[in-house]
Specification:
The chain is an alpha/beta fold. It has a domain of 209 residues: NAD(P)-binding Rossmann-like Domain (Rossmann fold, 3-Layer(aba) Sandwich). The protein is built from ten helices and eleven strands.
């Protein structure tokens, strides 16, 4: 989702920039020797690292080994290969799940490593912390401009709509769309519905990343957030309205809630001149339109 948005927006707004990409079936980012060969051949001026193994609560809880090991291997292989081939600028994309479960709200960058993580996504968070810290250490030890951005929960075109392994917005879009098609009388959502989450449209994130790549002295890591949050139950009702589902919405408290609240403080990034421009309501409409187009053309991502 993020990588395709980067390519789309760079082509649209910065056509002079040559974007170098490589498909997953052509390069395994966990293989450092192959990654180094790719960098030696392509010689980029800057790297924007948006690759990750990602998923929601179920996927994170079911596959912690893969979420930790694969993401650590990708980060180390790519960051080290970039340095050894002379790349001076590297922007690593992480996640706000790096912060403690009970961090003061809204979460500031300095909350990192101050208390325990949320257990349901601990493996993924640990991997992202490794990547963030490795960039920080390369910058301080070797003088290269390696830095990181920590986006809040993302959604938009190119999202993953897998029925079990997707994040909450694409998962609910698919669930309510399928329920509307099947004329189901009710839909159950995981947990109590009380946790609050912040969501950012993917194009707003990409504008932030482009902004950071042009910054002469960015922070070692910076939050990228929308600025307000919503409860999961409120979110479910909002998405049901966008989709046009009119049945009942129930909760399933037997399923985990995750972190009670996760709202980021993005004032550091905003102080450099960036702010989001896509409202939450408009973003959900765009996301659902993309879901419908992708489903109709047979290009719906579900893996």
């Amino acid at each position: 989702m993020v990588g395709s948005a980067v390519c789309r927006l760079l082509a649209d707004r910065h056509p002079h920039v040559e974007v170098i990409t490589c498909a997953r079936n052509q390069l395994d980012l966990r293989d450092e020797s192959k990654v180094r060969s790719f960098f030696e051949a392509s010689r980029p001026d800057a790297v924007l690292f948006a690759a990750s193994r990602v998923g929601g609560i179920l996927a994170n809880s079911t596959y912690p080994v893969e979420f930790l090991a694969d993401n650590v291997r990708m980060a180390i292989a790519t960051i080290q290969s970039a340095y050894t081939t002379g790349v001076k600028r590297f922007l690593y994309l992480g996640s706000t799940c790096i912060y403690p479960k009970f961090a003061p709200q809204p979460i500031r960058e300095e909350a990192l490593l101050t208390s325990p993580l949320e257990t349901t996504n601990e493996a993924y968070a640990l991997a992202k912390i490794v990547g963030l810290k490795l960039c920080q250490y390369y910058r301080h030890q070797h003088g290269v401009l390696y830095h990181s951005a920590m986006p809040t929960n993302l959604y938009g075109p190119g999202d993953n709509y897998h029925p079990d392994h997707s994040h909450v917005i694409p998962g609910l879009i698919r669930k309510f769309h399928d329920a509307k098609d099947a004329d189901l009388p009710q839909v159950a959502i995981w947990g109590t519905g009380t946790p609050r989450r912040e969501f950012l449209y993917v194009d707003d994130l990409v504008h932030a990343l482009i902004h950071l790549l042009a910054h002469p002295d960015p922070p070692d890591w910076v939050n990228v957030g929308y600025g307000s949050d919503i409860s999961i139950l409120e979110l479910a009702h909002t998405i049901a309205g966008v989709v046009g589902y009119t049945g009942a919405i129930t909760t399933d408290p037997s399923k985990p809630d995750g972190t009670p609240r996760k709202l980021t403080d993005s004032s550091l990034l905003r102080s450099t001149g960036w702010k989001p421009t896509v409202s939450f309501e408009e973003g959900l409409e765009r996301a659902y339109d993309d879901f419908l187009r992708s489903r109709e053309t047979g290009n719906l991502r579900s893996r």
